[in-house]
Amino acid sequence: MRLPLLITAFIAYFCVLQSLPIGSLGKKASLWVMLGIPGIWWIDLQIDGIKKGSLAMHHSTRLPGPGSVIASSFTSPIDALYLAAIFDPIFTVSYPFTCKVQQITVAQAILRAFAGPEIKPPENSRLIDMATLIKRHPNSPIVVFPECTTTNGKGILQMSPSLVTVSAVTRIFPVSLRYSPADITTPIPHSYRSFLWNLLSKPTHCIRVRIAESILLPMSSLNNHNKIPNTTNYDKNRPRPGPADRHPSYDYNYFDTLDAKLADSFVDLDASLTNGEQALLNQVGESLARLGRVRRVGLGAKDKQQFVKLWTTGKRK
Q1: I want to staple 109 with a disulfide (CB 3.0 to 4.6 A). Which of 7, 21, 91, 199 is the partner?
Q2: How do residues 11-30 score in pLDDT, each as one tens digit?
Q3: CA atoms of 167 and 57, how far apart (whole Å)
Q4: pTM of the entire structure?
């Protein structure tokens, strides 16, 4: 009974209402209707350093707002739907081997939770660094999924370097989203049926939201960008993506021209980060692990891609 309602609400909003001048409040109300149909009403919200009942006193510095970045965990299509209903942000896609991101819509962010891990951007995709994206959308927060792919919520994958392209004054808020029951995650690609069954077969669901204190890019990292990896596949004449003073601009995907192995590309990019940038990524990863009460793992999107191949092969047998 709820499935037709959910599909109708989804189509009505993303095909009709989203293009109408209904304002931010109207959009949020429509998104909350979609959350309410499967019974997602209970929100357990906790913010680092804030006692219950005192949020209004610290709202401007403790919650993501315009000009800030939300570094969110990524386990379910509900992640994007909830973040859109609360913050009305700009969504992006991060990749493991580039410091730039790809801007997407709310619907694309929801559907991406069902997609397999992508190691590199699609051909001819337009990439942009975070500092430029924030300047283009000063009235909205920016959502980044730094793990680059969905997980089962039991560990934090390696962080994408896209977060290091923010300016030194941009606040990054690690946000952990967990669900009870925990069976509405989509770590396996194309799991539409199981997700909808688990979502609609239970009367209610609870979202456990944890927001960490904001993190800033260390100032020292802005003054140390001379580390260029010594590799034949790295274009030394091409500016390395970075904060606002590192030539922020749109860029087309240049990975299709590289012949290097993806693993080598990861090592090269990792070596090009400064100590401050590495510390920023580690701090975001540690915050997400602490908020979710899980551990960081030494795996990334490429490892999940290999796992999915083995999983798919095993199911076919």
Answers
A1: 91
A2: 999 999 988 898 889 999 99
A3: 26
A4: 0.84
